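Could you show me some protein's one-letter sequence and the numbers that encode its backbone in two labelled lines?

___
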Amino acid sequence: MTIRVVLADDQQLIRTALRMVIADIEDVEVVGEAANGEEAVALAGQLAPDVVVMDIRMPGMDGIEATRRITEGGGETRIVVLTTFDDDDYVYGALRAGASGFLVKDMALDDILGAIRVVAAGDALIAPGVTRRLIQDFIAARLEKPRGRRELTAITDREREVLTLVGTGLSNTEIAEELFISVATAKTYLTRLLSKLDARDRVQLVIIAYEAGLVSPHRAPRSVPRNG
């Protein structure tokens, strides 16, 4: 199955470089290009791509607002935010807007292609290092008013345990080992949490765990892992 991608970046050079690399990949196809947020939102609505590779700083509507509008549209399109700026304000804003991945432009193109595949498969990915700052520094200092436990009343005590472990960065395999359950059971709990908490992916579960006070910002995560 071919992954259909829209590239949204105000720099033609960046779009051209990505398009040239993707052209040689059998399972990924560029179906549209946008030079600003408005164009990205319009193309997402018209083409329903699997993934939008979204720059943050663009003229007019920026990538964060465009991400918010696309994800609030209720479609299946997922967003990989790609920028030269790894500032935590942008990271958190993009994730809160519904992005499933955050990468910086100095990463290898192969890594960017890998991120597109990860996000298209329904997982989430953040560039190494960015996650650590997001959790340790930004959330600790500037977190918005916590969601409060009232928003977690729908989950069971066991699901709360799983959410806490997800928040610390454990993979499904590590969660299974920690709770003495099977990996399949850990995945089932994750699926239930995504549904009950109306979260798009694992990254949003991490944010919810911190906002609800289940995880301390001083307990550094290993990463935001894939679902394995």
